[in-house]
Amino acid sequence: MRFINKIFICITIMVLPNCALGQKQGNIWCFGDSAGIDFNLINTPITFASSLVTRGSCGSISNNDGELLFYCS
């Protein structure tokens, strides 16, 4: 009985990550020197120009649908 439980737990651990859906809050990245990448389309990321011109660290915030709300340096 214990062997069957171990097999069930292993199969469950392997299957659950495939069922998980993540939010798209980290799909848009903004960089210094007016650069950005949109990862909402997994196979074809899109580059875009932002109005952020800095050499320091940057941050971007998106909503659950992956739409860019704002970015800052």
Describe this structure in words.
The structure is a single chain. The chain is an alpha+beta fold and 73 residues long. It contains 1 helix and 5 strands. It has a 3-stranded antiparallel beta sheet, with no helix packed on it. Strands 4-5 form a two-stranded antiparallel ribbon. The mean pLDDT is 78.
Oligomer: single chain
Strand percentage: 25-35%
Bulk shape = elongated
The count of helical stretches stands at 1
Distance between the termini: 57 Å
Main beta-sheet strand count, sense and barrel state = 3 strands, antiparallel
Give the strand order of the largest sheet, numbering strands 1, 2, ... along the chain.
1-2-3
| Rg estimate, integer Å | 19 Å
How confident is the prediction overall: mean pLDDT?
78
Please trace the helix and strand order, writing H or E for each element: HEEEEE
Strand segment tally: 5
Sheet/helix structural class: alpha+beta
